[in-house]
Amino acid sequence: MAIALNTLVEEAERYLNASRIQDYCPNGLQVEGRPQVSRIVSGVTASQALLDAAVEAEADVVLVHHGYFWKGEDPRVVGMKQRRLKTLLSHDISLLAYHLPLDVHPEVGNNVQLARQLDIVVEGPLDPENPRTVGLVGSLVEPMTASDFARKVRIVLGREPLLVEGPQMIRRVGWCTGGGQSYIDQAIAAGVDLYLTGEASEQTFHSARENGISFIAAGHHATERYGIQALGDYLARRFALEHLFIDCPNPV
């Protein structure tokens, strides 16, 4: 079955409520391809590797979390950007990208989906006083040590996480997928036993150690694989389309 590209874009916009969320990039249709869609290829980042795989899979739309045209980037269409855009345009493939709208969505969002993978019961936002903060707090069904939880993260995500182990058992967790290490202060204020995100900065170690909590950096890419899959699955079910998630390896 095929549907109009505009219909797909309109439904993604409605479902994610994307126009209401301020972001660092344009959300929605970033590159327009053929007018009819029957096959979606999704992935975390619109890298050349994903685009090449999408061409091989005969995709009509590439659906990603990390697209193009970020604020402050060089606007010239040269080098890597030229090659990526040329691949899309020469094969008449659309690029559909959702950044923060995908992080915060209550059903297919990266943070909610990661919680489901790790058996964390969502309790609420990481910082209820600041609606712009991306991240959640929740509890484990059964308390465990930080090293046991890190082992679970490794098994589920298929990547060895960085662990800063604190003294207490892990009952309450704060998390923000991707590059959310700067939210560790909000996590500490929320009274969590462990804060999990994708990346770490030098000062993150000291914040965790001196405030007596555990910290896990599980990888930007690894923590953000699940939202885009869930969104692709939703759109595929909604319109009876084909959907293929392609995971291009990224150790970061």
Question: Mind sketching the topology for me?
Answer:
Layout (H helix, E strand, L loop, with lengths): L2 E2 H12 L11 E4 L4 E2 L1 E7 L2 H9 L4 E6 L12 H12 L3 E4 L2 H5 L5 H9 L1 E6 L10 E9 L1 H12 L4 E3 L5 E7 L7 H6 L4 E4 L4 H10 L2 E4 L2 H4 L2 H14 L2 E4 L7
Parallel strand pairs: 4-5, 4-13, 5-6, 10-11, 11-12
Antiparallel strand pairs: 1-3, 2-6, 7-8, 8-10, 9-12
Pfam families: DUF34_NIF3 (PF01784)
Protein name: Nif3-like dinuclear metal center hexameric protein
InterPro entries: DUF34/NIF3, DUF34/NIF3_sf
Please describe what this structure looks like:
Keywords: Metal-binding. This protein is an alpha/beta fold. The chain folds into two domains: 3-103 and 224-245, Udp-n-acetylmuramoylalanyl-d-glutamate--2,6- Diaminopimelate Ligase, Chain: A, domain 1 (3-Layer(aba) Sandwich), CATH 3.40.1390; 105-221, NIF3 (NGG1p interacting factor 3)-like (Udp-n-acetylmuramoylalanyl-d-glutamate--2,6- Diaminopimelate Ligase, Chain: A, domain 1, 3-Layer(aba) Sandwich). It has ten helices and 13 strands. The chain has helices spanning 5-16, 48-56, 79-90, 100-104, 110-118, 146-157, 184-189, 202-211, 220-223, 226-239, and strands at residues 3-4, 28-31, 36-37, 39-45, 61-66, 94-97, 120-125, 136-144, 162-164, 170-176, 194-197, 214-217, 242-245. The strands form three sheets. Strands 7-8-10-11-12-9 form a six-stranded mixed beta sheet, sandwiched between helices. A five-stranded mixed beta sheet has the order 2-6-5-4-13, sandwiched between helices. Strands 1-3 form a two-stranded antiparallel ribbon. The model has no long low-confidence stretch (mean pLDDT 97).
